[in-house]
Amino acid sequence: MSESIKKLMYLNRRAPYGTIYAWESLEVVLIGAAFEQDVSLAFVDDGVYQIVKGQDTAEVGMKNFSPTYFALGGYEVTKLYVEKESLEERGLTIDDLMPLTWEDEDDDWAEKDSIRLVSREELAEVMAGQDVVFSF
Amino acid sequence: MPIEVNGKSLETDEEGYLVNLAEWEPEIATIMAKEDDLELTDEHWEIINFLREYYDEYQIAPAVRVLTKAVGKKLGKEKGNSKYLYALFPYGPGKQACRFAGLPKPTGCI
């Protein structure tokens, strides 16, 4: 791996609608993916709601951009860390999240899970190993 | 400048992308292509339709690199490369083909 490749983490901690943070974060991730860095996303606190299944924005008058998270795999963004405690505090489990996957071109396009459930402690370690953490 | 199609005048942005995606019809691609001195073939339509399906599924226009890979997977390696796609869309498969398909400019296209 070339030395110029940086480990970038996008930390998402807010609910998807009501503010522009979640969508802005996703757009920056998609734009940044063109630079071929080592990108990961983390979902903590209300940020876990960003990737919850069955979102319906008809009543809030914002575009439902949750389908776009399924595009991440195609952008080679394959590491989505979800904090277990944040899910539990909200009465959610991994089954409430969208089944986000990526296809491994080097493994005959095998479908692999993108979501990695981690504890608060494990996530802190992953974060400590990053070159840059962008908080949204 | 608005684009005239089937007696309707449809709004486009300053770079010629359709403002309202829902107004798209195939005729629009043909008209836009003619303005770029292109005659649309089945091979062009294959990519245009592919882009529309991609947008329908993910709600974004793909970056060129992503498009190239996805085309390779769906339509075969001989089509999933920039040489093939640029031959069809000389102004860039992302920008030009997305415009013909009525999509916004690809995210990450600067």
SSE inventory with pairings:
The complex is a heterodimer of chains A (136) and B (110).
Chain A: E1 7-12, H1 21-32, E2 38-43, E3 80-83, H2 84-89, E4 101-104, E5 110-113, E6 115-118, H3 120-128, E7 132-135
Parallel strand pairs in A: 1-2, 1-7, 2-3, 3-6
Antiparallel strand pairs in A: 4-5
Chain B: E1 3-5, E2 8-10, H1 26-35, H2 42-58, H3 64-75, H4 82-88, H5 95-100
Antiparallel strand pairs in B: 1-2
Largest sheet of chain A: 5 strands, parallel
CATH superfamily of chain A: DsrEFH-like
Q: Work out the helix count of chain B.
A: 5
Count of folded domains of chain A? 1
Q: How are helices and strands ordered from N to C of chain B?
A: EEHHHHH
Assigned CATH class of chain A: Alpha Beta
Q: Find the biggest chain interface.
A: A-B, 17 and 13 residues
Side-by-side strand order of the widest sheet of chain A = 6-3-2-1-7
CATH topology of chain B: Arc Repressor Mutant, subunit A
Keywords (chain B): Cytoplasm, Transferase
Enzyme class (chain B): transferase
EC number (chain B): 2.8.1.-
Family (chain B): Belongs to the dsrC/tusE family.
Task: Give a quick set of tags describing it.
heterodimer; A: alpha/beta; Hypothetical Protein Ychn, Chain: A; five-stranded parallel beta sheet; two-stranded antiparallel ribbon; 3 helices; 7 strands; 20% helix; B: 110 residues; mainly alpha; Arc Repressor Mutant, subunit A; two-stranded antiparallel sheet; 5 helices; 2 strands
Q: Could you explain the architecture of this structure?
A:
- Helix content of chain A is 20%, strand content 24%.
- In chain A, helix 1 links the parallel strand 1 and strand 2.
- Chain A starts with 6 loop residues before the first strand and ends with a strand.
- Chain A has 136 residues and is of the alpha/beta class.
- In chain A, the strands form two sheets. Chain A has a five-stranded parallel beta sheet with strand order 6-3-2-1-7. A two-stranded antiparallel sheet of chain A has the order 4-5.
- Chain A has a single domain, classed as Hypothetical Protein Ychn, Chain: A (3-Layer(aba) Sandwich), CATH 3.40.1260.10.
- Chain A is globular.
- Chain A contains three helices and seven strands.
- Chain B is mainly α.
- Chain B is built from five helices and two strands.
- Chain B has a two-stranded antiparallel ribbon with strand order 1-2.
- In chain B, strand 1 and strand 2 form a beta hairpin.
- The chains are: A alpha/beta (136), B mainly alpha (110).
- Chains A and B meet through helix 1 of A and helix 3 of B.
